[in-house]
Amino acid sequence: MGFLDKMIKQSRLKSPWIVHFDCGSCNGCDIEVLACLTPIYDVERFGVVNAGNPKHADVLLVTGTVNHRNRHVLKQIYDQMPSPKAVVSIGACNLSGGVFKDTYNVLNGAYNIIPVDVFVPGCPPKPEAIIDGVVEALAVLKAKMGMGPMPEATFMPGDEDGTPAGARDEQAPVAEGDKSQQNAG
Amino acid sequence: MLSILSAIGGLILSPLVGGLLTGVDRRVTARLQSRLGPPLLQPFYDVLKLFGKEAYVTNAWLVFSAYMTLISSALALFIFFMGGDLLLLFFVLTVGAVFQVVGALCVPSPYSNIGAQRELLLMLAYEPILILVFVGFAMCTGSFSIEAVFAQDQPLLLKMPLLFLALGYALTIKLRKSPFDISASHHGHQELVKGVQTEYSGPFLGIIEVAHWLDLILILGLCAMFWHTSVIGMATLVVASLFTEILIDNVTARLTWQWMVQKRSLLLGMGLALVNLLWLYVA
Amino acid sequence: MNTLVFCCVALPFIVALVLYFTQLDRTRKLLVPAAVAVMALAAVIMGSNGAFRLEADSFCGIPLDSLFSLLDLLLLLYILGLGWKLGSRTVMGMTALQLVGLLYLKFVLADGAAPITAFAPDGLSLIMVIIISVVGGLITIYGLGYMDIHEEHLHLRVSRKPRFFAIIFCFLGAMNGLVLSNNLSWMFFFWEVTTLCSYLLISHDQTQEANANAYRALWMNVLGGLAFVSAMLFVQKSLGTLSTEIVLQKMTAMDVKSTAMLLPFAFFCLAAFTKSAQVPFESWLCGAMVAPTPVSALLHSATMVKAGTYLLLRMAPAFADTTMSTIVALFGAFTFVGTCILAVSQSNAKKILAYSTIANLGLIIACVGINTAASMMAATTIIIYHSVSKGLLFMCVGAIEQRIGSRDIEDMRGLYSKMPRTAIITAIGIFTMMLPPFGMLIGKWMAIEAIARATQAMTPIIFFIALGSAFTVLFWARWAGILVSSANLHERPAHGNPKATVMFALRSLCGLAIVFSFFSPMVLKTFVEPSVAGVYARLGLKGEGFIPGASLTSGAGYFWIYLLFILLGLGAWVAWKVARKVPNGAHTQPYFSGLAQEQAGQIGFKGPMNAFEPVRLSNFYLSQYFGEGTITRAIDIISTAFLIVLVGGLL
Asked: What ipTM was estimated for this complex?
């Protein structure tokens, strides 16, 4: 079954279905994500289809600020995706909390909740950057399948230490205390 | 013996042709939307990828239903290639459709349940039309068997134009195209997440997709039978039907089930079928 | 042959008498299966011998003709008394009219008539005897276990089971007698016995609702009885005989059938319509669902309501090629589509089954009305397989109701985790009703083929059938889906402990349904085809529409059915094996937009204020479009118009 196996592995790279979850953003990143699906950028060329259902998706595009309320949702959506899967974290808020970093309810970055493969910085990132991120996620998937080298992270000067990208291979720090009941009443 | 072998051969080729046609569908849709669109082999990549996914299951009955859907679609196509009885073909198709609904209903999820209910309403809309089309066939050829169609020397389209239009309604519904895609729209479009297919994932979604391709080949085969006298005629009809479906898909919006059942599909489709049957009856 | 007929017709009455006085449960549980076994065996042996004629002038020295006349009168007097007790002038009036008619018939018209062959069953009668004895027998055995629990639930101190089983056996004997009889007045006697049995059994629980519904069943069926008597009067007057055989011979020998000749058959149609609960008489059958489930299974789906269609099927050659036949066909098709639509809006399982029964009876009547050899074959096939499947489904619903305390299909969600075997048997029952390769669908296939070949009014009939058929898929498919759904995920199904008789009956009938369907080509070739061909040969009719050796009963037809059965069966087996192999670790929760939660095994989602919301699901009943309140009135009016045209057109 080696031939079939190879065909399946190749197909995974040619048909990444996405599910897009907005944790709680200003929707700026979401508009840019959806712009990718429009005729001008046309990601369907790469086989990308917005499945909208984690059970059908391979790549999770996360935007928005992760906080104590929506972390459970994010986790569950990630868990309900069958493997192999990849996660792309889009926008400043999702990478590290953005302008809301360290506020009372915000968990700084989605990488604290789920393992993230690709970080796409920007506020909002351009559709080209997002497409670039998805393509990078495919390269990560390829590497995970043992068909290629793991892509190198591209750092900006002064970013090497303390960035989520640098911490990708280490254990992701877990947020302490579950503050989701704080405003539950 | 030869007919069985050729039918089996046809059955093996059908997923390939079906997938290719689906790829053409997506490409043409894209071009109509002023964009490039995926490569022609995209549906194969999709299905292969799905087969390689981990199997997550909410209820084991879902697995049973997915396989039954594929088996009955294959069986219906087999009957078609063997030149068997049209009514039997119709009833075997029903098996697949019913099991897809049963699989969706067996999961306690609101999306798949409402999707299943809507799928049942869709079946309500296209089944009477299909039966009437087959009765039309019987009236023209004197028998329900497909072999009898090939014994005619004139294309059936001349005698049954309105029934062909009615078949178009059934085709739109079966292909899950606007305006009749309230249950589970095709590829990227969503309706209640993915409607009846929401809880099918990974390999089981792949199986449903292959069953869908087989259904596509079957319905196009039925369309082709309206001009059985020449291969060019058949090809023209098939290409024209497919293109019209894609066009309609892109210019219309989804209708609610009331519109579909009351006004558009059911009554109009049946009305067309009825007029044609009466005409055949009188003539 | 004498013994066999005795076993099927007279023995049940004797057993009924014995059972009436049997108080001990244990004795009853020995006697009933024994009697059922004897009856079933006799029926099968009789059936395998083929058509026969039996002259029976006297029974134990009493001339049978006079015996039956006496019994007829006694029965009618009893019903008159019932009407008096219920204070119903309608019932009293109609019964009195029947008495007068019967007396007139006996002493004025039929005085000195030639003796009539007692029993002359052909393939149709024989297959019906087999169904009544075998299916009816299994349902009676089921009743043993069912009634135990039933009376437990009702906290009855004095058991009413002796009465119950006595009446059931009377009924079985009467049904057998009905289908075997050649003499119309004997048939009438058995007909009225079934009316009486139905009344007594519907009102078995003696609640107000039961009594009210029993009364409705009584007056509608007595109306049918009145129509039957009028038909007999006309037949005796115009044809001079009450023998079914001779009536058919004379009618089919006529080139042109005058309206006067056809009038009795219109009355027979009316009698059949009331017995088979066609619209506008469907309310008695829907109301009869208050009876204990064995009653619903036996009387109101598998056998008694088939008596009406049996009568019509028997009489069909007499009114072939007439406008009246076309009207009957249209009427049947209209009933089919009307009741299918009504069934969609129901969530009460027994009502769904009731409407579905009426719909299938309408389909049979539509086939009868088409009146070609092909459609008669279709009608017979549907009668056979419908009895088996519907009896099975009713029994399942009864067992389910006793366990979960409800007959609403919404409460049957997740039944697979509570009653796995029953849930699977019910699902199989539903699939035998609507999917290939099972017999019911073969019957429907033959019906559509026959209708498409008919000459008169084919288009509206096929329109109704196509539409109705789509509606049936709707309500069956969603019920089947609900049965196997699970609200409690990952739970291994727990086996309850059902009564042995109940499970035995369910399993046997389920197995019978499947096996019988597999051998449908053989069943068709042995019983249905010879029966229809025999009728046409005996009466010298042109077999118009009959394509001997084509369609189903040819080699090609067999090939397809067996092939389909094997392929689909294989496919189902493979699918089942794969589904079983799904590892427990692969289970996941349904998609709830990321908010899925489980609490105490119940699936739900995290709602407002972080509270757990259990999932609540329901079907689309669409009652504002398809509901009883909305369309019953319209259906009743249109169908009454049909009946007026049918009878009035001939007057």
From this structure: 0.91
